[in-house]
Amino acid sequence: MKWKFINKIISAITVSMTLFTLIPLRASAEWVNDYQGNFYYMQDNQKVTGWKRIDGQIYYFDGNGKMQTGWIKAGSSWYFLQNDGALKTGWINYNKKWYYADSSGVIQTGIVNISGKVYIFDDNGAIKTNNTVINGEFYTIGFDGEVVGTKMPTPEKEYDDSGNCIQVLKNTDNKVITSPTDSKFNEVIEDKTESDDNPNEGRSFKVLLKDSDGSELKTKTVKYGKSFDLYKPTKDGRVFAGWNAKSNGSGKSYDADDSIKVEEDIILYAQWKEDTSVYVEDINIKGNSNVTVNKSVTMTAEVSPSNVTNADVTWSVSDETGKATIDSNGVLTGVSAGTVMVKATAKDGSDVSGTKEVTVTNTDVVVPVSKVTVSGQAGESTITTDGGTLQMKASVSPEDATNQAVTWEVQNNTGSASIDSSTGLLKAISNGTVTVKATSNNNVVGSMTVTISGQSTKILVTDMEITTTKTDFAITEDGGTLQLNLNITPTTATNKSVKWSIKSGEDKATINSSTGLLKAVTNTNGTPVTVQAEALDGSGVVATKDVTISGQKIKVSKITIDGPDSVTGTGKVTMDKTVLPKDATNGAVIWSVENNTGSATIDANTGELTPKSNGKVTVKATAADGSGISDTIEVTISGIDNNIPATKINIATKDGAALSITEDDGTLGLIASLLPSYSTTTSEAVNWEVISGSDGGSAKIEGGTVGSSINIRGVTNGTVTVKASVINADGTTAIGSATVRIAGQITNVTDIIISPDEAPEVVVGGTLQMSASVDPNNATYKIVNWSVSNGTGTATITSSGLLTGVSSGDVKVIATADNGKGISKYITVKVIPQVKVTKITVNAPDGSGDEITDGGTLQMTASFEPTGATSKSVTWSVTPGTGKATIDSNGLVTSVSNGTVTVNATATDGSKVVGSLPITISGKVGTITVAGTGNISTIVIPNGILQMLATVGPTDAVNKAITWSVTPVTGKATIDSNGILTAVSNGTVTVNAAATDGSGIVGQSVVTINAASGITINQSSNTVAVGNTAKLTSVISPTSVTGKKVIWSISNIDGTNTDLATINSTGDLTADLTALKQGSVNIKATLDDGSGISVTKTIIINPNS
BIG2 domain: from which residue to which, for each copy (predicted)? Predict the structure, then answer.
């Protein structure tokens, strides 16, 4: 090895001001990065600088070869480099604003045509999204920034869909740049020393594993060429997603079980993703509650919620009085009689489990089915695919029924299907509904309805019968109807559509071809109408039915007006007419008149015409029987002095649109119509007036105010009343008015008021909230945009007006109205230097003695030096000593446990000054001892109770209140707020007494529940001979009860003392009965546990033969 080469490397590292190591990202790649997260591109052993196209992407490297990201300015143009360094082209969304870069990456400004749409960009390249004024012209801008409306500014450039400049449309200072890659490499000194050996041989490198936030997880030093095994870290609320060479996950990835060969220093970052797993919350074990010795039953675990990510469980069984085994699939096998506890524990890490007690018996226990519930797979009750299937499921009750098998069958209703009798797989045949039934071995039936659609199998119609809900097939009312219906065979026919028609008598009735509604036209007079229904399924089935029609009225078929066709003067004339047929049921007509050049009125019933003005009118006679028959005649009126005044003016829009203006500065054309229409007053003499509304609405008349029509222009939003009037020749006045709604009018800002406005100041590094109001108060756009113009000082400001001082001096804070009119105001703010804290003294309340003696709280305060410090805020914390406490952001200390703690106040002004004060805590609960009354720890009576007691220490604890709870172990119990424990089921439970003073102290005691529910005397024979002795054995249930004793007694049948036999106890549960004389006695066995449980058995004593 050439040591000269190694020395040069070591020397370079030693003198370098910035320590970093270049790491190749892949064996053949030219990209490298350092441990500060900077990326470089090596070419011919040199770092590239300037613009460079790599793998089709353009990047920019500064003079040191460092890859740049974000906004950069090259020459007079701005560019945007993405997080991976690649030059971005096209549309760019940055900080909630849109920019556009052409195909060379240059950010555009000004007016630009992009793919046929015109946009306006400000000097910073951000697209304008509000209406704007350019050179005195107002332009409307849509929500997406496109210029809309009739007015369109002249673009400066035009780009195609790919961002290529098609042409420059307007003289500008902007130059079209074709490529940013015309730059040179900076000169780099190349080290040409060589080595035949690997210079890293024998060296040690550091492997640093960090969290994605940069915090260190694990560090290890590894020799060159050795391997390092990765691992899988954990993090609350997150799921580990692997390791990555970059903190943001954009580098090379590694799995948790990867092994890395170490040839250089390595930094890897843990990558996380949100833990979206749904964990098990409850487990319900289902299966038979009994199992026979040497036989097996299968247990199943029902987990909830149903959408858990991992529903797998681990099975286990614990022996109680019996024994059993269980495999990983939940198959339980009985070993010896008694009870066992089956347990299923979730595998998803939730630690949730469920238990079920199972009895192991020597003989089979038969549990009959009492109920069957039928459901479809995943709750489905429909089949929608052609020939589709649905897996049916049957749930039997009780869940431990011995034989849970069912037999499946299907009953076809309007649809049809088949079902596998053993598996319950239902297969669709035709559309409609079917009923699925499941029958248990003891004939208990469950059922559900399934709806079938989408089937292509056709069941043809074989027969049809026409029916009606009325008593007979007849229509007796004028214009009456008859609803015809069909009975179709079979009822499961696929297509039940029919076409209704009239086979004969088409002139006497009509029928709806789809619904079968028959409507009468004329009487049938002995020849009925024949109605036909034809099936549309291709079966060719047809049904017919005759219908009689009577009671129909004869309609008018023709009206002729006989005159007169001219009238002179104002005298009334009666119009004549001829109605056919002459025997029409209703020959009356309704008269009306339409005024043309003349005018008249007419009596609708008598036809009496009254002339009003000279000219022509049209008289019309219409049949009153609803047949629609009519006739007209033109009548000429003459000999009348014409002077008819207008009585009313009707106002409407010129184009028939709504009476509203909805565009800013919009107009509305109105027209006046004089009534009556034959009035001789001219509408050209109408006077117009606009009255502002009480809601602030206003408008103005464009042009003259006299004439038959006007145009009004909207001014402010609200409503206005438009009034029109005209003076008739006889001196009377006709008036009309209309309400017009004004909307969409923009009220511009005329002034801006900034506050605070009296010598405002902000500290370097501090903030000052600026606010602004606009005038007038009803301005449409009240939003202002904040900016800062730095003077002798510097500051920054957010979009919400929060000013942050940067360096001392004066700055101008500017508020600009966001209405496109350029209205703005500014105020000078003085940025003053920051005076940092040099000392903090932590103070407890006077008289507290720096102690918390009641187990409660203590409010801390902080004083500062110098008193003129700019920022007097602190961050509170507490350091535990022999005691514990918490502290909130306001300095309120809350005691947790007795002892000492140290309260700290840290300055927030960056000075890192800390003040501290020791605090002594007393009065908290330290210990809790739990026991039953008299130190009893067993309940021997079913549902028995035990008073639990809790002793709280130390004696000076202020709050000795506790909360009782009970945790089941193998048994169950309840406990009330007074500590009274009530037994529920045998086994052990843990009684908990928790302190309520926040100390977290909990006392516990284990209580055993050993209660018998019954007793029997196990004696095979009820007789014994005189002089013989019978062995008696008592059996206590449940069999899990232990440690019980029995008291034996004997009496005559009537309960009196007996001399017929004697009984002697021979054990806790056994006794000997000695027969002395012939007769009958009662033997009684009583539990000696105070429960009073006993059993009596009658024994017959026979003579000794």
Answer: 279-356, 368-450, 460-545, 555-633, 748-827, 836-917, 924-1005, 1011-1097
Calculate mean pLDDT across residues 446-457.
90
CA atoms within 13 A on the CB side of 463: 3
Looking at residue 19, its pLDDT comes to 29
For residues 682 and 711, state if they share a domain. yes
Which residues are within 8 A (CB) of 938 and not within 5 positions of it... i.e. 6 or more apart? 1007, 1008, 1009, 1010
Q: Look up residue 15 and give its two tokens.
A: 């003198």
1042 lies in a domain?
yes
In a 13 Å sphere around the CA of 340, the CA atoms on its Cβ side amount to: 25
946-949 own/partner pairs: CB under 8 Å, 24+ apart = 946/980, 946/981, 946/983, 946/1007, 947/979, 947/980, 947/981, 948/975, 948/979, 948/980, 948/981, 948/991, 948/993, 948/1005, 948/1007, 949/979
**Contact yes or no for 797/821 (Cβ under 8 A):** no
In this structure, the answer to whether residues 53 and 74 fall within a common structural domain is yes
Q: What is the mean pLDDT of residues 261-288?
A: 87
645 neighbors 732 (Cβ within 8 angstroms)? yes
Domain boundary among 424, 452, 480: 452
The three-state secondary structure class of 847 is: coil
Nearest-10 Cα torsion for 516, 522, 528, 531: -20
Average pLDDT over residues 490-498: 85
Give the total number of structural domains in the chain.
9
pLDDT band for position 676 (50/70/90)?
A: confident
Tokens describing residue 365: 């226990």
Of the candidates 814, 841, 821, which has an alpha carbon nearest to the alpha carbon of residue 747?
Answer: 821
- Looking at the fold, whether 439 and 322 belong to one and the same domain comes out as no
For 542, the token pair is 């047809």
pTM of the model: 0.32
Quick check: 281 and 356 in contact, CB under 8 A? Answer: no
| pLDDT, tens digit, 9 for 90 and up, residues 30-66 | 788 876 678 888 888 888 888 888 888 899 988 888 8
Q: How far apart are CA 973 and CA 971, in angstroms?
A: 7
Q: Are residues 761 and 674 in the same domain?
A: no
| Structural tokens at position 67 | 């890859």
Considering the domain architecture, whether residues 663 and 785 belong to the same structural domain is answered as: no
**Pairing between β-strand 77-81 and β-strand 914-921 as defined by DSSP bridges:** unpaired
pLDDT of residue 729: 82
Same domain, 45 and 163: yes
Query: What is the predicted pLDDT for the residue at 16?
Result: 31
Within a domain: residue 858?
no
Q: Kindly state whether residue 996 falls inside one of the protein's structural domains.
A: no
Q: Tens digits of per-residue pLDDT, 1088-1099?
A: 888 888 888 888
Q: Are residues 349 and 387 in the same domain?
A: no
Strand duo 914-921 + 851-852: pairing: parallel
- Rounded to an integer, what distance in angstroms lies between the CA atom of residue 831 and that of residue 506? 99
Task: Quote the domain boundaries for residue 437.
Answer: 376-452
Q: Are 425 and 419 in contact (CB under 8 A)?
A: yes
Tell me what the mean pLDDT of segment 88-93 comes to.
90
CA 915 to chain centre: 48
933 has pLDDT over 80: yes
pLDDT at 1091: 81
Q: What is the DSSP letter of 128?
A: P
Q: Which structure tokens are listed for 8?
A: 């040069």
CA-wise closest residue to 1082 among 1045, 1059, 1054: 1054
